[in-house]
Automatic annotation (TrEMBL):
Protein name: Ubiquitin carboxyl-terminal hydrolase MINDY
First-tier enzyme category under EC: hydrolase
Entry's family note: Belongs to the MINDY deubiquitinase family. FAM188 subfamily.
Keywords: Hydrolase, Protease, Thiol protease, Ubl conjugation pathway
Keyword Amino-acid biosynthesis attributed: no
Gene: Mindy4b_0
Pfam family, one: MINDY-3_4_CD
GO biological process, one term: protein K48-linked deubiquitination
An example molecular function term from Gene Ontology annotations: cysteine-type deubiquitinase activity
Domain Deubiquitinating enzyme MINDY-3/4 conserved: 5-103
Entry keyword Nucleotide-binding: no
Annotated InterPro entries: MINDY-3/4_CD, MINY3/4
Length: 108
């Protein structure tokens, strides 16, 4: 029998395989597990355990873009620009979300 803590985690955690590398994407806000309204602007942390990552990346996710903002800015993942694979993976859960790396250079 599986423990209730494993069936319903207290904090959101995703095990990822991005570009063939295993990593962890997690949040520290327990409301993300139980309250969909918390999915407006929130923070996630990414850790790959790879040698090139010296610290956990702090990401800010915004799931609500405004139509008037989209007209003024180019899609960060347009064909002319390369989009980090991690951002593409995040958008499989939150389609159209913008991802801010908060000053860290995207390394995935």
């Amino acid at each position: 029998q599986v423990s209730p803590g494993l069936r319903t985690p207290r904090f959101p955690v995703w095990l990822c395989s991005v570009l063939g590398r295993h990593s962890v994407l997690f949040g520290t806000d327990s409301r993300l597990v139980s309250d969909w309204k918390s999915e407006r602007i929130f923070h996630l942390y990414f850790y790959s355990g790879q040698q090139e990552q010296t610290q956990t990346a702090h990401l800010t996710i915004d799931t609500h873009s405004h139509h008037w903002e989209e007209a003024q800015r180019e899609d960060p993942c347009s064909p002319r620009k390369r989009c980090p694979a991690l951002e593409m993976a995040i958008r499989t859960k939150w389609e159209g979300a913008t991802v801010s790396w908060n000053g860290t250079d995207p390394f995935f």
